[in-house]
Fold this protein.
Amino acid sequence: MRGAGLSAHVRSSNVTVCREMSVTGETMADDGILEPWGSGLARINRATGERLAVVGAAMQLRDLPCPACGSGSFHPLVVRNDFPIVRCDSCGSLYARPRPLEEQLASLYERFPQLSNGREGQANDDPQDGRWEAEYRLRRLLEFVKAGRLLDVGCGRGDFLTVAQRHFEVQGVDLVPRLRPEARTHHVFRGRLEDAGYPNAYFDVVTAVEVFEHMFDPRRTIREIHRVLKSRGILLFQTGDADSLRARLNLRTWTYLQPPVHLNVFSRKALEQLAAAAGFLPLTSWSFGRAPRKIPLLANLWHADALRPVLDILASRRVIGAMHVWRSEI
Ligand SMILES: [Zn+2]
């Protein structure tokens, strides 16, 4: 079956369509990222019921092929936030089809910057988590590279820039930076990486944590990362995993699928193809560092170094999502 069930949304392939986002009620998130509100979406603080942001009621959408591999063949799976989520028949990635135009996404984040971070503004948002995750990420990165020029793509509140500056000369890029006071002295480009104009082979390290799932054209962004990295430079990234146990168990309740914020969830096969096509060699995969401190049992498990090897094995076996390290080979 190819594309069945989408005709209500898309009149023909490869054309821009406009429609009201009449939300169907399929939105739900344990941490309440997006919920229906009026004719659009609202981000709700589930603890207080406070409405934090309302997403625009109408978005221009385009029917585009797989953002991971370019294949046009797919199976519809679920509808989330009124966006059909499909699985690519070629690489197994999950993606929203149709998807908002790139300028629509930019204006979404411009208007509602807190949407770019799943926990920001939520009851379980704790600044300590951001710092702990940044320290964990730095510790793992230092296993591969000890110094040099580092670029954090999607630097958000700047937690990683702040800890990484102890070892690296740091810069950031973000569509809508929301730097904490202690991070405001860092050099951060506001906009897309592709528009920052960094020189060729300029950085020793690029990090992109929880970024590719948001991107309109992640393949283009990975090519740009490769361009600005030195030969044998390191790319560290973390993103959702279409092969994880959680994704395989029940997509209907997997809160990571949050279009139009999270649009792409790559399979491991897609990541291997992406690495080869862009000139990277995958070096290793580790478990995530992410666990809200305000969920004690989960946080204790995730933060316990003794359990880290077990978590890493689970990540490498595709049970849980992974943080990946690739090296530029060209
Ligand atoms: Zn694909």
